[in-house]
Structure formats: C-alpha cells, structure tokens
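User: Could you walk me through two proteins back to back? I'd like the raw sequence and the structure tokens for each, with a short line separating them so I can tell where one ends and the next begins.

Assistant: Of course. Protein one, sequence then structure:
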Amino acid sequence: MLVNTKAKVGVFSGVLDSMLIPAFSMPIKQGTACAVEGDMKVAMAMSILKTISGTGQLAEMYSIDFNDDIAIIGHSGSGDADISDRKPTMKIVKVFHGKTGGGYLTQFYPYTGPVTYLAVTQDGNGNFKFVVAEGVNEEGKILSFGDTNMRTRFTCGAREFVTRWSECGPTHHFAAATGRHIDTILKVAKILNVPVDIVTR
C-alpha cells in the first residue's frame, strides 16, 4: 500500500513538473528567471542578460554540426518568448531529454544574428566568476524534438569554442541573449567585483 502511494505521488509530481514548463515561461518573459533543475547560477545569468538586453534564455551545449562548423545550443522546457522571432510552439513528448517522464515542451525560435552567452560559475576558491562569449545565430537544420535550438557560429570555430568554454569551468547551463553584450557585462562584473573569462567575440 505504501509503495502504491509513493508511486502515485511520483507520477503526480512528474505531471505537475511538466505543467510548470509552459507556466514558467510567462514570468521569464516578464523578467523573473525560472531556471529548470534548481540551477540558481543560471537563474542569475538569465536575470543579468534579461536586465541588460531584454532577453534571457536558458541554454546548454547540445551538439556540434561538424560539417558546418557550428555549435548547436539550446534547452528543453521553459524559456524567454522575447528571444523568439515567431510565435512559440508547445509540444507534448513522451520523454524529456535527459530526464524521466514526459509532458509539455515550449519551443522558441531565437532570432538569427548576434548572440551573447553568459555563464555564472565559481573558481577553485568558490568565488563567483562570469564566462562569456559572443557568436552569430544562423539559419539551418536544428533538432526537432520540441526543444529550443540555436545554430551558433563562433569566430574561433565550434571545436575551439567548446574547448575554450570548457576550460573556463562553467556549469553545463548558461544563458543566451540576442545581440552583443560583452562590453555591458564587463561593466556589470566591475560593479559586482566579479572576474570575467571572455571565450570569444
């Protein structure tokens, strides 16, 4: 009987979690970061970018298109509708990427053109630091399972970008914003007394 109750609670919490994905997109658009997986550092990154640029989308490295030398960057779940150049779509999936269960996914279609990525991470002493990069989003084929995806070209190339980005020690989540914003992020970092690793611009 106890096992049955636990199973029912688990199923209910999974359904509730899947319903929160489109719901969280509304406060994100209004400027309140709601990061999935309880990642407070990416919530800070989203808030910073939303404040300085008007967009703050949750993101992570998905893959690399080696033929086109492009990094594929995005995330499933809730996001910022202001980064989308057309009406977002909602999809019901049986399995979330990398997680158990399924439910609703909200897919956004980020603008092509300049994009800025910001990760809030910590150094070896536990102090905060920023990791930033600028690139250009291009049209092309993306993954089609209901997640927000961007095809980003970097001046240093996709392979070198992944190497440099990883060497800075970011968490696997980061935030994305349309436009070029490293100069403004440097000013924010100076006010907060936080060091910045610039990966590429």
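----
Protein two, same layout:
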Amino acid sequence: MKLTRKKLLISGAILLLIAGFCGVYYGVYLPRRTAAADNSPGKKTGDNNDMDRTFKVRRDDLVIGLQQGGYVNASKKHKLALQANHRTKLIWVIDENTKVKKGDLLAKFETDDLLEKIENFEIEQDNLTKELDLARENYRVLLSTNAAELQDAEEKLSQADDALRKYRRFERVNQRDTLELAITEAEDALKTEEDAFREARDKQYEATSTQNAEEVRQAALDKQQAKIDKAENTLTNAEDNFKVFRRYDHPSKILRLVNAYDQAKLTLQKVKISTESKAIQQRKSIENLRRRVRWVTKQLQRYREYMPMMEWRAPEDGVVIYGDPDRRWGNIDVKLGIEVGRGQVLITIPEMSNLVVDFDLPEQFRSKVQVGNKATITPDSLPGEKFDATISHIATLPVNMVQWDSASPKIYKTKLKLEKQSPKLVNGMSVQIHVVTKIIPKVLFVPIEAVFEENDRFFVYRSSLSGPEEVTVTIGESNDNFVQIKSGLEEDDVVYLYRPYQKKQDAK
C-alpha cells in the first residue's frame, strides 16, 4: 500500500507539472507568439486565420497624420498656345514625350491663307494710299475754289453796301435838294409874275391908232396872267415831283438798295456755309481714308507678325506633353490637320528641375494640417521609394471637389515642396502622401480594428489564461492605423483584432 500510495503521489505531481506547463504554453507563450506573428510585415491574413489575429500592446512614438493621393507637378510649365488671332491647321508636330533642347522645332502651321491675307492687305494699302493722295489734292483745289467764291460774294456785298451808303448820304440828298430848289424857283417865278401882273394892272396905258387904252391894258393883263398860269403850273409840277420823290421814288430806291444789300449778305452767308460744308466733307473723306489706311496698315503689320508664330520652338529644355496637363477636361486631341485657334494649348514643356507635389486636402482635416508639416511621398510607380517633403502652401478658401457640383465635398488646394529634387520623379506622376501632423512620444497604442464601441463605451478583447476577456479602455488620438490607449491596458498585453465571440459563433 505504501508503494502504491507513493506511486500515486509521484503520478499526481507529474500530472500537475504537465498541467502547469500546458497552462503556461497555451496561456502565455502561444498568445505572445501569435501576436508577434500578427505584427510581422510578412503575415498574411484570411478567413482561416482571422481567429488567431492578435496584437501585442507596446509603448512607442505614435505618429499622427493623414494619407492622401496626389501628383507630381512642375512649378513652372511652358504652355504653348497659338497667339495669333487666326485660325489655321497643324501640318507638323513633334512626337509626345520627346526630349527636346531649347530652340528645337516643335510644330508647324499652315500659312497659305495667312499669306493671301497679307497680299490682299498690301494691295488695299497701296490703293488707299493713292486715293488719299488724290483726296488731299482735291482738297487743295477745293480750298482755292472756295476762296474765289467767297471773295466774289464779299465784293458783291461790298458793292451793295456802297450803293446803299452812297444813296443815303449823297444821291437822296441831292435829289431832294434839286426838287426843293425847283419848288423854290417856281415859287419865286410865280411871285415875280404875280408882281408883274399887279404892276401891269396899276399901270396907265395910252391909246393907239387901232385900240383904245382899255383894250391895251386888258391885253397886257391877259398876257401877264398867262405867265402867272405858266408859273403856277411849273410850281405845281415841282411840288408834284417832290411828292412823288418822297412817296414813291425814294422809298422804292431805298428798298431796292436795302434788298440788294440783304441779298448780297445772304448770298455771302450761303457761300460761306456751302464752302465750309464742302471743306468739311472733303476733310471727313480724307480722315476716313486715313483711318482705313491706318487700319489696313495695322492689319498688315499684325498678319506679318503672325508669320513667325506659325512655327513653334522649344523655349527651354524638357519633355513634350500634348495639351494642358493642369486641365482635367477639354484638352484638344493633338493630331495633324486639326484646326487651331488663339489660346488653345497644344504643347506643354514642364521644367523638371523644380518639381512640387499637389494634392487636395479634405475640409475635415484642415484644422489638423498646417504649413510646414513634414510629409513622406511614395510614388505609385515606385513603391519602394520614399521622398521627404514639407507643406509649403494651403489655399485660403475651400472649393468643391467637383466644380459644377455644389454638393461635392470641399477641399483645399495644397502644395508640397520636396526636400530634394530627384530625377526619378517626373511631372504628372501619381503619389501617395503621408502627412505627419503630430508625434506623441512613448504612448500605448493598438490597431484601430482592436477597439470596439458600444453605448459610448470603448473596449477591447484582451487575451488571458482563461481566454478572451472584455476590457474597457480610454482612447486618445489616432491615425489611419492605430489609436492611443490612455487607460485599461498595460504594455505587453495581447489584444484581439476581432470579436472572438462573434467569430466563434460565425464559425459554428
């Protein structure tokens, strides 16, 4: 019995050792080994190993930032567009992606229509110049003719004025004085005859052999009366002439002279207006011809200046890109025979010596990102290459990601300056950008998929000897992959990256 009891005790101790070993192996060693395997970059996950995905909590620097897609862009691009305001056709163009040197020929445009326009303008310029010279000569002749007409009209007006003045000052007075003198003389003659009649009436006559004294006296009186009647008639005629002069001759003459003066004055005014109008019309004609000559000369000069624009040469060394790489849509399909108008960008030559990185910063991350933040650039075509950069510019105002859609997300146009230029980077290359906004030193953190939320409570599933246990945690800041743990976990704790209970139920 004693031997049997001893054997039993030894067997029990051995079983206890085996049980303890198994507990340590399955409860501590195996979870930590699994966590290490999960944290290794070469681990692959799938439906069959999701039940074993765990993470070992560690204390390290937590990098806070964001990751966005962007593209490499040249800070300076030479965009070649037709500057001539003349539609033409592309007849030759260098192949895209060709490396060129400064001065190399890039494109040629059709010039037949341009040369025809230049020739037509040259002919029109020559004809207009001759027409202008003829108009100037006609203007000089017109001025001479106008001067002669004005001089003639002025002379007629002067003659009419002289005639009016002469009549008013001399002729009218002379005629009036003559008529008044005739009246005075007739009155004097009448008075003389009347005195003679009275003298004859009072005179004593002697009788003759044939007549007595009374008959002689009566014959003398009759003779003297006849003289009085004649003198009266002369006076009446003189007075009548004076009346006719005052009532008819003088007003008629003065009216005729005034009308002649007014007519000459009006004629002079008409001549002035007519000559000035002719001169104005001729000057307008000359000015119109001058304008046409200037316009044709300007057009001719412009089209002559277009001729050198019909050949493009490289402004700098670079690589040829068709269209405008900064324009997302609306670029012309560059091929021979296409019609090209002013301002259409056909070729772009970016300067590769000073590249930057452009990307769209989402509005929700604007407060987290500042000018001067560091970033790492990873080209999509060179996944193993990384380039350091710094945020150099953030637009002041946001814009819609889709310009014509006001409901699209808002973004800020942002630029990164490369710390060092590299020949591996080229214009237009797509890159992934990791912007570092903050580094929290020496904190505990776990993958985001390890933290779950329920009723405003955050928790994780921690591995223990008895299996997964739910642990409430307090979280801090996070990046795209990890979240800070402020309380609830300790360093080297192992957490599950899934809901283990849920996985078990799904497995059933």
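The CA atoms of residues 362 and 411 lie 5 Å apart.

Let me know if you want the two compared in more detail.
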